[in-house]
């Protein structure tokens, strides 16, 4: 078996460090309390029941606790479940860090920051460069750690920065092929388009939406920050309006959360490459464990389609 | 005939002061230039052709010029047109003001400001009151003069303030009938919801959308200003998020331009009374010249419906 | 704990009078029959299982029976359930009336009738007044007891009359603010718009749709009754057509069940205030038990939105 | 050239009896009044201008007047127009009847009535038979003359009865092939489904919608008449509800004007064969003058499609 | 009780031959494996659990095995389940054929083939006749056995041929009533329209979609086969294009899977009678066990509607 | 003025070679025939009237004739028109080729063929390579000359090949950035996806849809050719199904003309880069003559949006 909880099947014995992602107290039909735990590692997550708990257990085995678990994976009514035989909280002697137990982007934070700074350096328009640099500076730490979403795609630690890096590389290729596109405006838009997520989402572990995120949304949050930063930096050229427009319109249309549709060439391009990276990423995630000749599960955010891996695609290209 | 260009019919002689709303130079089939003028007064507008013009005419009869016109209204291919027999620019001796020639709200600016200030005074939550007062102060002059739109409803001078006053009166009735509603938040939302139009629209005469208005929109403009003003006033309670949410969601859903749907009770109420005032106003405009027993023209913004005035509605209530 | 089943939590002991809303016989995996009961009082309802029943129990504990129950509320797979320790049918000595165990409008039937009659009195157009009065007379008893729906809003005893009273008060405010509106036609429309529900719904307890209600619908039912009543009263002015139109169009458009969209000013207003009262009521219901700083459950009929009660709304306005 | 105005082309000389369908007075750019006439015969219609008219002409050449015209068809800006050289009102000596100048169903009224009465005779359920017979009796004359619509299909004299006869024949075939269908209910539904059009439409010539038709619609009109007639005949079986349901649901769904979707087998069948006859008829109309190997004009009511007549369809089946 | 598993109720004893439609191995909470079986006969299917299985049982009781079962039907959480007391594989001595245990069309394969061949004989256009005959020949066996779908309608053995026969009879009636329709093209289209299903579906038992069926679809499969067959038969008249068009457009529009909407008269008719036969069949299936005065279950493919059988429909027409 | 009819303004004198794209005979109000000509060169087209024509003119100045025209551009009712002072047919002495007078791709046909052949060479899967090579071979000449559409984008000579070359370059970049993508399948899909247009469209000049193109469409045409070619080449691996699927699904969904949505990774990528190239191209076309600080016309195929060129985009990147 490949390492990691995602690869476990019914019958797999477990002897793992895992993170309690959520712990919910319930009452069994015999009136005794028990905990339903969602346990995860870098590869995925699994449900487990902790029966016959006492009050101390409730306190010990709470959200975001790292634990060591022994047990076995079983098939319970068609879904996999971890049957716990022993569980204990991790101690300093275990030398386990929380980053080891949650899914994280495949690139290091520092490397991603270096790439992004190079692209900022390539922005020749001084207004756009200063706005972009200043906003990234302001949120640097959160930006490098934040997921890009709570589900669907890039829903893991540093997913936001990873999504931006992928889009920047794509943007560079496209600017080379279609030279009418304004590289400066596009790069600035790519780097800032989802930055509002550092306030919309609650952080890297057990990510939820903040009240502000739910009521205002990352699009309006960052649009307002651009206005504010421009004022601080005494920038008032049309670059401010254009950059706000790119951010506001990057979901493409009203039904998808953008108060304006793209009306600048680079706004349309930003929307297209954002979609492109998201859709490819969701397909890759859906197909990663699928054998040639098989269909994936339905992917909700891709119009509920299933994807087929043709039988002739047996090349190394399938291996991540 | 009632006074005003709106009431003219084919055959009506014209001897009026009118405002040139737009003037467009064209070339006739005999190769001679002519001007197509849209001429208006407080009641409406009409098209006219000015034939055989010279270069001086082009300069004289340009957009936003007040003129005195003699001529006759004719039916040209099913539409009314003003056939000009003489036209001259207005001079100081005519004692005509531009306000006399454009449609204006039925209330005076000062009276509307007084009403709005009373409602601001009734906002007991200090954060909401200070935010509202400060933003109105900042844009007071433009707010009192701006139309609420370029067409559909309240598309006249001071239309924005008039729309706000009508909605405040409606809000007050509704708070009395449904006491769970938070009066403070609702009043603040009503007063600020369309304030971004002072930057979205170009002003009271020959109103168009500014570049910023087209690319950002009044909703995002004012949402950003609320954030900025809150920072200036050192307000950081949840009132700021709530008020931004009311403004962002007041169009009701994405298809209608709101990046968020209403998720606070007062946000839903704001959306409903905004719609209510707009729809009643559009119906009243459509029916104002309709006889009992007749249908109005189709109203585009009311799902292209025509409205019928029942034959038994012969009471003074029909007269504006 | 506030009184009433709606306020019970896991662990709450129960010693209550309750109404059996539905009783369904099922077979357990040990082949023994049991009953699944939905038990309710004025505040809400809860599921319970009655194990090991005999034939007499089946007869005794049927739909619409009042019972006294002792037991405890438990959490069963994430939903609350009442675990019955004893249950008996109510006797005359208990002095419990069915009205005490079902949700009822907050106003008395007689008071609501008085209000409605005053509004009928205010209808000056004799044709509209006679039609309205006659139809209310014909269905008076059922009208005062009927719920306005089986779910969503005003889905309780006398909910229909309560909805009409709320709308009349709203209509009165609006007529004052927008005097072009024909008060007579609007009041008549408000009073009659949902009257077909007395034939569409099965009554106040365990409300379901009748066959006629399902196949014809309350809108067409009352439109036909207006035609019929007009004939009986020898009224044939355009008031009959107008009133039928108000009733037919009050859902706003075809997708929502109206064969015609509003094409008379008062028809549009009727639709808007019907929506207004329904939406406010659903939000109030959703928020009634929500603490400041929390979100409600999703409200199906409000586009599945959740509603947030801002943390600063700690005033008495939150208490019903 | 085939006979009739529909077959005229640019250059065709005209020496015809025609009906003035509409006459509209307009003012030419030389200030002189003229009439725009829509002139028709049994095959179609054409526009004409009557220049230099006096007051008597206005009175003489009004709507629904039969005239004799000489002139020539011309191409004016891409559309055909009749250039009048002489025009006079028809006199008794011309021996022309209005029926000769308007499009009429291809069957005689008496023959259609005979067919319909046979089908009524075949309804064995006495309640359904009596309801159907009584309603047809009540509106017999108007029913036999009314068009089925103002445009799209069966928009000619006696079009309503012709549409019903076609549908009855189709219904008979279908009942034979699918014997589960209740012939009685289906026949009754077919005969009555559009009967409300006798009050919705203004009659056979220059057909428009009545006020009642616009505000109530033929569907609700006949549903109410069924209720009323049942009361007169003392019928209160479920046949009344079922028949009302068939009529109410025959447009299929809300967006198409039905307040209820079909929920009885025969209601669905009625909807399907109504659609079937309408769609075939519209296609036949569109293709009647099309040569093999050519496309028709776009047909608005058939989703704006054009229809192609294959080159191999050169058989007599193409000739009406 | 009527014979057949569809008619069983809780408490019904079972002593039947049944077909294992699917067998799924699962692990119980006591770690022991068990099988969930879906068992069917000609009338319907039911779930059963086979507890405490050994490895031989797994092999014996696999998909598409015929078994004899004794046991009893129980109500398990609101759904019927078969509680097995004994189960054994069928042997030659049982004289049971698989056709006896799966739902099959009510007509014999040979009879249906004879009907279809008669209709082919009636196609006078030689190109259309040869194309149709050749394609039916090529797939004769599969065509006569295939279901028309995996669910919704005609989802049983020989369902495809049965659907075609019903549609041909309907087509014949319609050609008689509307003689403009080209009988040859319509018959050819009816016979071939769904023939691609012989490659789209996996066969008559436990029908699923093939990979080719999922990725290409029966519409494009048969369109390509028509092109190919025409080439083999050296036919290149417009009949080939027209016939491909009928097949490609028979679902009516893009959202329903047709790359082209009908643009030939016979294409529209094919679409309409395909819909007609499908909708009538689904309604008949939904109503077959419904008592007069009752509603059916919701029918997914008929816009989730329930259907009502009127109380007065007590005639033999209700009995299949 | 830049060279070419697209750059002419009212008043521009014309002394040009032009191609008659369409010539339509009409009758003026003075009964004399005239021709409406659409005249074009490599940059665009303009309308002209040729008055007072004789029968020889009709024959001379027909569709697809090259002419030399002298005259002047005028503004006629807001649209530009060419006022002809002299016109004559081109003779051999003019040394003008039709390619000089129609818009053509910016790359040479031979160069594009070379690029495409290199990409075919890079397809390592032999089945995919042979299918692609064979189909391009079969249609080589038409493929290199065909436009990609009649309007919207790449609607010029060799537009199809140019679109394919742009997409191949984009595909290459994307395969580098997302190595999970199967390069072979993607390249084959890009090259073949629109090849059916060589039969769907009538050729490079005055392009219209063929009957086959209208009734079958380029998607189904090429899907059938892939099946046929595979049979000829004795290829029956899953590559055939996969390649057909890519072609069938490349419009993304049913509403846009694809009978299947993408269900293979490379199918989704093909759809995305097809859209990408089309949308960028349409935006570039819309913005090519727009000054910084101005909006373009509305672009129909881009959801009727107008595009803004920011005032700060004054760099050489704007110049084609």
From TrEMBL, chains A, B, C, D, E, F:
Residues 163-279 form the HD domain. Gene3D superfamilies: Hypothetical protein af1432 (1.10.3210.10), Nucleic acid-binding proteins (2.40.50.140). SUPFAM superfamilies: HD-domain/PDEase-like (SSF109604), Nucleic acid-binding proteins (SSF50249). Pfam families: HD, tRNA_anti-codon. Keywords: Exonuclease, Hydrolase, Nuclease. GO terms for biological process: rRNA 3'-end processing. GO terms for molecular function: exonuclease activity; nucleic acid binding. It comes from the Bacteria. PANTHER family: 3'-5' EXORIBONUCLEASE YHAM. This is 3'-5' exoribonuclease. It comes from Shouchella lonarensis. The lineage of its organism: Bacteria, Bacillati, Bacillota, Bacilli, Bacillales.
């Amino acid at each position: 078996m490949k390492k990691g909880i995602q690869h476990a099947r019914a019958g797999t014995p477990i002897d793992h460090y895992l993170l309690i992602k959520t712990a919910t107290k319930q009452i069994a039909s015999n009136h005794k309390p028990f905990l339903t735990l969602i346990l995860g590692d870098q590869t995925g997550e699994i449900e487990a029941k902790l029966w016959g708990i006492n009050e101390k257990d409730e306190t010990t085995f709470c959200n975001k606790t790292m634990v060591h678990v022994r047990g076995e994976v079983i098939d319970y009514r068609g879904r996999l479940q971890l049957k716990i035989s022993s569980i204990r909280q991790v101690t300093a002697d275990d030398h386990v860090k929380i980053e080891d137990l949650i899914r994280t982007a495949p690139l290091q934070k520092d490397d991603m920051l270096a790439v992004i700074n190079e692209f900022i350096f390539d922005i020749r328009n001084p207004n756009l460069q200063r706005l972009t640099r200043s906003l990234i500076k302001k949120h640097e730490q959160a930006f490098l750690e934040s997921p890009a979403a709570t589900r669907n795609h890039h829903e893991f630690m540093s997913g936001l920065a990873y999504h931006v890096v992928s889009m920047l590389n794509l943007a560079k290729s496209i600017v080379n092929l279609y030279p009418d596109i304004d590289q400066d405006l596009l790069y600035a838009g790519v780097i800032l388009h989802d930055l509002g997520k550092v306030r919309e989402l609650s952080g890297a572990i057990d990510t939820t939406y903040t009240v502000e995120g739910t009521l205002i949304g990352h699009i309006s949050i960052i649009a307002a920050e651009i206005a504010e930063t421009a004022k601080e930096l005494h920038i008032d050229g049309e670059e401010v309006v254009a950059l706000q427009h790119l951010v506001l319109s990057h979901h493409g249309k009203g039904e998808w959360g953008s108060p304006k549709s793209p009306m600048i060439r680079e706004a349309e391009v930003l929307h297209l490459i954002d979609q492109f990276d998201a859709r490819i990423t969701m397909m890759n995630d859906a197909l990663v464990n699928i054998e040639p000749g098989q269909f994936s599960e339905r992917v909700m955010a891709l119009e509920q389609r299933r994807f087929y891996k043709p039988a002739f695609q047996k090349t190394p290209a399938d291996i991540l």
